[in-house]
Write a structure and sequence with these properties.
Layout (H helix, E strand, L loop, with lengths): L15 E6 L5 E9 L2 E10 L2 E9 L1 E3 L8 E3 L6 E8 L4 E6 L7 E8 L5 E7 L3 E2 L8 E2 L8 E7 L6 E6 L15 E2 L5 E2 L1
Antiparallel strand pairs: 1-2, 2-5, 3-4, 4-7, 5-6, 7-8, 9-10, 10-13, 11-12, 13-14, 15-16
Amino acid sequence: AGTFTCIPQTGSYAATSLAKYTPEGNLVWAKNLTVDVFMSAVKLVIHEGALYVFGQYRNNADFDPSAATAYLTGNGSGNTPFVAKYTLNGDYVFAKNMAATTSDVYISDVATTTYHTFVVVGAFSRSTDFDPSPNTYTINPAQDGYYDGYLASYDSNFTSVSAYRLSGAAGTTAWDYVENVEIDNNNNIYL
C-alpha cells in the first residue's frame, strides 16, 4: 500500500498530483506537478494506452513530474487551459497550452470520438486562439468580457483544431457555460 501527500509548493495555493491505484486501493505510483500559483486538473482521459490530463493553470507550470522540467507559461493573470499527456506509468510525454488569450478560459469536460478526436467544452470571455500549434483558430464571445460556452475538437496530437462559440446572439450579456459533453457510438455530440 503506501501513502502519498500532495503539498503545494511555497507561493502556490493549489497543487495537482497524478496517482495510480490497484483495484484493491493500493497505491502504485503518485507524482506531483509543480506550479507557481494555481493548477486544477478537471478531467483525466485514458485513450490509446496513454493518460491525458486536462485543466487550467496560472502563471507557470512544470508538467514533467520527474527531475527534468517541461514548463509552460500561461496567459498572463487569467486561467490558461492545458492538456498534458503521460504514459500509464505517469511518465511525461508532452504538454500544451490549449488556448491563447488575455483572459480566463475554462475547461469543463472532455470526451473522445471513435475517430480519435478529443472534444473539449468550457467557457471563455475574450477573443481566443484555440489552436495549440503555431497556426491560429480564433473565436470571439458574443460580447467581449462576458463568458460564452465553446466546443473545440482536436486530433490526438493536439496539432489540428476546430472551435465554435456556443451562446446567444452577438451583443448579449448573458453568461453561457458548457458544463458536460458526451459522445455516442455514432460520434454524435451531446451537450
